[in-house]
Design a protein that fits this description.
Helix content is 79%, strand content 0%. By secondary structure, it is an all-alpha fold. The longest helix has 34 residues.
């Protein structure tokens, strides 16, 4: 494409579209029809320039022009409760379901790593000695020690809020930092598994692994699943940078990135539930079996939610991205 010739041939149309947009509130019927036609043509021009002869300055101008025209043609859309319901029943579970081939292996491998770390620490006194002094280890693992009192060290509501904030931040970092080839995600994931392995190993060495699991499982099942979903999605985003598939890298990152950001919102809600369990159920006086049952029920409810609602939405074509009419208008809508 000869860019100069192309610009000369279509500059008048772009200028005319800009003029109509400046006085769009007083357009006649014929002028409104002309605006729609020029919007479609300009979107096509933008697509051609982006694919054949990218020019940053011209692309920027046309992108703004197309965006303004699109708002004029479609109107400004406001979010409604219908959008919230659609997100919770279709978009978010579909995004989690689509990422299952990433987060399920992530969960299995991470659990294996935490198990190996816990065994290694629990069976090697020299490793335990490198973590803390003997008195500190006893203070951590004894009945009524810091591992047990941690969950009741603050008022339940403030503790739940603190836990929720920390976990939501960790999940969001996994999702956002995945774009850096997934490497930061692996580090965040390893730190979580290391902390879990240390706790399990130290309590196991004191003969109190059952107590540790009774404290961790009620909230940990759902909490760790949310972390695994975030990490798996972040790794998928990182792989998209390497292999975008049939899409252009820019399009693939835009689509997967929007889905990942939306997933961060959904996972924050899931982590709110796990935080409430950790703040109110884990330190409660309920029997261990009852607390674990609550945790298992919450985990099963989430999996059913993902596989039933998410699977149905994904098979219907929902990817967790915004609706088609809300995406970039840089793709031509008419010839």
């Amino acid at each position: 494409m000869d860019l100069d010739v192309f610009v000369s041939a279509h500059r008048a149309e772009w200028d005319r579209l800009d003029a109509l947009l400046r006085r769009r509130r007083s357009l006649t019927g014929a002028e409104a029809d002309e605006l729609v036609t020029l919007y479609q043509r300009t979107a096509t021009h933008l697509s051609l320039i982006q694919s054949s002869a990218p020019d940053p300055q011209l692309t920027g101008r046309l992108t703004q022009l197309v965006a303004r025209a699109r708002n004029a043609v479609t109107g400004t859309r406001r979010a409604s409760w219908r959008d919230v319901i659609r997100f919770l029943t279709e978009g978010f579970p579909a995004a989690v379901y689509r990422s299952r081939h990433w987060w399920i292996p992530t969960a299995l491998l991470s659990t294996a790593v935490a198990t190996v770390l816990g065994w290694w620490i629990g069976t090697h006194p020299e490793v335990q000695a490198s973590l803390a002094a003997p008195d500190e280890l006893r203070d951590l693992t004894r009945p009524g020690g810091r591992y047990e009192t941690y969950y009741s060290s603050h008022p339940a509501a403030s503790f739940a809020a603190q836990v929720w904030t920390n976990n939501a931040q960790a999940a969001a970092m996994c999702l956002v930092l995945g774009v850096f080839l997934g490497l930061p995600v692996l580090w965040i994931l390893f730190q979580n598994m290391l902390n879990l392995g240390i706790g399990a190993g130290l309590m196991s060495s004191a003969g109190r692994l059952d107590t540790f699991l009774g404290l961790v499982l009620p909230h940990g099942l759902l909490e760790l699943t949310a972390v695994f979903v975030a990490a798996g999605t972040g790794l998928r985003l990182g792989w998209t940078v390497i292999d975008p598939g049939p899409r252009t890298r820019r399009t693939a990152l835009a689509e997967e990135g929007r889905a990942a950001i939306a997933m961060a919102i959904g996972l924050a809600l899931i982590l709110f539930v796990s935080g409430a369990i950790e703040g109110f159920v884990t330190p409660s006086g309920l029997p261990t079996w009852a607390r674990i049952t609550i945790g298992v029920a919450a985990e099963l409810a989430f999996l059913v939610y993902v596989y039933v609602l998410g699977g149905k939405a994904a098979r219907a074509g929902d990817t967790g991205d915004v609706e088609a009419n809300e995406r970039s208008a840089s793709v031509p809508t008419a010839a």
